[in-house]
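Lab notebook, bench 4. We co-purified these components, and the gel suggests they stay together. Before we commit to crystallization screens, I want a quick structural picture of the whole thing.
Request: model the full complex, all chains together.
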Amino acid sequence: MIIQAFNGVSLGSILLLIALGLAITFGLMKVINMAHGELIMIGAYTTYVVQVIFAQYLPATMFDMYYFLAIPIAFVVAALIGMLIEFTVIRHLYGRPLDSLLATFGVGLILQQTARSIFGAPNVGVQSPGFLRGGLEVMGVTLPYIRLFIIGLVVVSFLLLAWFLYKTRNGRKIRAVMQNREMAQCLGVSSRKVDLITFAIGSGFAGIAGAALTLIGPIGPTIGTYYIVDAFMVVVVGGVGMLIGTVAGALGIGIFNTVFEYWTNASMGKVLVFALIILFLQWRPSGMFSLQSRSLD
Amino acid sequence: MQTISARLLERKWLFLALIIILLILPFFISDFRTNLLGRYIAFAILVIGLDLLWGYTGVLSLGHGIFFGLGAYIMAMHLSMESMTGAVPDFMTWNGITELPWFWAIFSNAISAIIGAIMVPMIIASILSFFIFRNRIRDVYFTILTQALVLVTTTLIVSQQSFTGGTNGITGFSTIFGYSLSSPATQKGLYYISVGSLIVVFLICSILVNSRFGKTLIAIRDGENRLRFSGYDTSMFKVLIFSLSAGIAGLAGMLFVMQVGIISPTMIGIIPSIEMILWVAIGGRGTLIGPVIGAILTNSAKTFFSESYPDFWLYFLGLVFVIIVIFLPGGLMSLVDKVKRRGGKHEKKRKEGTERKETNHSAVG
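Here is the predicted assembly.
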C-alpha cells in the first residue's frame, strides 16, 4: 500500500516536472510546443556531457558533485535553445495554436535528428551520483533515494516558479501579458520581451526535467516523445493558466496510473487512465482549476 | 459568385488531369513503382477525409493513424484468415492460442471485413468525438486527446501480442478474395480499385463541401460561436464530419494493407499520424485537390530521399513543417492561386482570397 502510494507520487512528480514547463508555454502562452520533449532531451544530454567532462578532467572525488552543476547548466542550455526557437519560429505563430503545434513538431524532428548525428542513435547511460544510491527504510519498505531526490527537486522547482510568477516584478509582467496583452502593452510592458523570457523559462524547466530523467534510466534521442503526451494530458486535466492545477493533474494521473497498472497491467492501465480522463472532462470540461472568465474565445 | 464557380471549375480540371495521369502511368512505370503509387493513392484518399475535418471544419485530429490502422488491421485479419493453413494464423500458434477469438471470426467473411473496415472506425470515432464535442471542449484539447488516443491504442496493440501480432504486426498474406496477391495482374487490379475509390471519395466530398452542409462546416471553422447562437447544433456537425473522415481513413487503410501486405503499430503511431497532417498542409488545406496532390508528392519525395539520403529525410521533413506553416499556410494550392493572380485579370478574386485567409487565421486561434 505504502509502496503503491509512493510509486504514484513518484510518477506524478516526474510528470509534474515535465508538465511545469508546459504549464508555462501551453498554459500561459497558448503555444502547443511539441518540441518540449526535445528540450527535455537536450537537458538530458547536457547532463550527460557535464558528467563526461567531470569524469575526464576532474579528480574522482569531485565526480559526485557534477549533478549539482548539471541541473543549472541543463536549465540554461535548454532555455537558450528555447529562446532560439521562440525567436525564429514561434514568434510568427501567436494566436494560432494548431499551427504552432505543427511547426514545433517540425523543430522537434530537426532537434532529434541533430542529437542522433551528434551522440548516435543508441541510448547512453548517465551514472547517477554515489550519494543517491540505496534507499530509505520506512515501515519495512525501501524508498529509493533517487525517487525521493526527484520529488524534492520537483518541490523546489515548483516553489521557485511560483515565487517567480507571483512575487516578482517580472512574474507579474508575464501574468499581465498573458491575461490581457493589449492592456499590458498600453501600460508599457514590452510584450515581445516578455514572450521571449516566458518561453525561455518554460524551456529551461524542460531542461531540468531532462536532467532528472537521467537518474531514472538511459537516455536517447527520442526520450522526450515518451513522456510528452502524458504531460499534455496533465495540463489538460489540471486546467490551463493555474500552476496549482498542474500539480493536481500530475499527482492525479500519476496515482491513478500506478493503481490501474497494479490492478491490471501496464497497457490496460494506460487505456483506463485515458477513459477516466475523457469521463472526467465530461464533468469539468476546462480541467480541475481554471481562471474564471466571461470572455468568449 | 462567378469567380467562385470559375475556381471550382479549375480545380475540377486539375483533378481530372491528375486522374488521367494516374490511369495511364502504370503503362510506363515498373510494377514495383505502380505498387508504390497505389500506396500513395491510399494515403491520398485518407487526406481527403482529413481535409474535410481540418481544412473545412477547422478541427485538427492527430489520431487518424488509428482509424487508418483499424481499417488496415481488420482487412489484415481477414487476409491472414484467408491465407492460414491451420485453425489460427501462425503467430497465434506461437503464442499458444488454438481458437480464433470472436473479433477475428466475424471478419472471416470478405463482405463483413470490408464493411467492418469502414464502419468500425466510424463507430469508434463517433463515440469518442461525441463525448468530447458534447461539452464544447476546445479544439486544442481535442487535438491533444486524439494524440493520446494514438498512444493508448498503439500501446494496446503492442501489448496484446497474441491477438494482434504485437510490434511485428500482421503479415504473410497469400491470396485476396481468391486471387493470388503476388501476381502482377492482381496488384494492378488493386491499383485501379484504389484510383476508383479515390475518384468516388473525391466526388462525394466535393459535392458535400459545395452543399449547404459544406457551408455550415466552413461557418463552424470561421465562427463557431456565432453559428451556435443562430441555433445550429455545431457539436453534432463536428461529430458527423469526424466519423465520416474516420470512415474514409478506414477505407484508405484497407486499400493500403492490400497493396503493402503488412500492417504494424509503427505505421499508425504518433509520427505517421502527424505526417498525414503535413500532407494536407503541403497541398493546401480546404481545397480537397491540394491534399491529394500533397500526399502523392510528399510520399514520392520521401521514397526518393530515403532511398538516397536516409539521414537527410528527417531534417527535410522538419524544415518543411516549419516553412509551410510560417510562410505558406495555404500550401501548394495557394502558390497556384498566386501564379494565376500574376496574370492580373482576377482583381476581384484576390480580395476574396485574402479575406478568406484572414478569417482562416482568426478561426484557428
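The first strand of chain B starts at residue 170 and ends at 171. Worth comparing against the SEC data before the next meeting. Strands of chain B lie at 170-171, 175-176, 179-180, 262-263.
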